[in-house]
Amino acid sequence: MHNEIQRPFSRTFAAAALGAALLAAGLAPGALAQDAGPTQAQVDAVVEAAFPGIDAEWAARLTPDETMRQCNQFGNMPPDDVFEEIRTRAASTIVYPDDGVLMGSWENGEKLAQSGYGMRFSDYPPRRESGGNCYACHQLTPQEVSYGTLGPSLMGYGKLYDFSEEAVKAAYEKIYNPHVALPCSMMPRFGANAVLTIDQIKDIVALLMDPASPVNQ
Amino acid sequence: MHKLMTLALAGSLAAAFTLSLVAPPAGAQTEEETQRGLERFRQMLREDPWSNPALLDADRGEMLWATPAGPSNATLEDCDLGLGPGVVDGAFAQLPRWFEDAGRVMDVETRILWCMQELQGFDVAEYVKKPHPSGGQPVKDVGAIATWIANRSEGEAFAPALDDEAGRQAVAMGEALFNRRSGPFDFSCATCHAASGQRIRLQELPYLSDPAEAQVVVGEWPAYRVSSTHVMTMQHRMYDCYWQMRMPKLEMGSEASVALISYLVDKAAGGDVAAPGIKR
Lengths: 217, 280
Description:
The structure holds 2 protein chains of 2 kinds. Chain A is mostly helical.
């Protein structure tokens, strides 16, 4: 049952209870347009008008995909059936390396974890490869003291899981699409959204799971 | 007198920052230097509030307000910021608000743009193509004027006139936008600003949906930004956060930008206007 899993962020009981009441009444939150804010179509129109003159590739960023639409609709706390739907959909997006090897070079993984470069409008045309920016949200190595706290500390991550094959696979999947382990996770979908390549993800998995990586010292 | 002192101090501060910022490579070093610089800056401000370099831009804004310009060769002195034509004192503390003449809710910058168009005949569509300064460049004209107008409400409590229907709709739209995830990183504003005490790298992230935290930070905008050595306005802040979200360039004065600012100021209501502030 997903109720045991830590939710992306906590909300007040009042808000949860209101959501439950709306659901029980067969209404999605937001259905009470007059009282509960603008309709989906109104929000979409305002977003579209806020970013004029963009091409199709950029325009695609304005529209949440089905998973994000569901996470938005339920304030990142989807009910059980939607939770399972998101998880199943996320699992179906994962592409594994052809040779089945899930770990690359932790040295390169560390570089990718440091780099926040990529996909901002000032990053075009690309001057180097996109990074994973893991340090923006996670502590990883003891050497790097400039780390964010939006995600849990990953220091000693591989050691914590005895470097098991299962844990290596779970780490690969977490980076590829974090909604498999936790639907409506706040973490970006680095593989599924084509932010990082399979080889880059392998390098980052090595950073987490290679016994020689500074993460595990 | 004050202006001269400000100039001298700003000059020496800018020199100190240039030195400390140029040397180290990007990353933790620069961040540390910025933090140290910020502390020094705050110390000097405590000793002499006039050493805030943003006050130079406020002076420029005051001058721009009263200088005939544009195809109509008119000043902005008849601009109605919500309290009647030409009334500047206290006007910022009640923005954003609904404007009958424009038929929409406006924040201070959007209102200045509107007055530049209506009174001075400027082509605002042209202005908003590149409305924000690059790092090291001074804030542009609308930002300078906004800095002056905001400063003329300093010490007053934020009391945005948002309790009419249009205001409530703007706030509700802002809330929806604040929580709306999209783009290749699946970010919403709430990803970074919906909890207390969080950080991206070493940068502290205010919990902006929490009135207690919003009241402290929102009233400091427009603010002098130490890391980019210029004044940054709230419209620029929104643009920059969308940049971090891997979204396209937010149009200055768009309904979305005004709605987000309305949401933030609504949360900050009751807090004091303390503009221009100082930010990292």
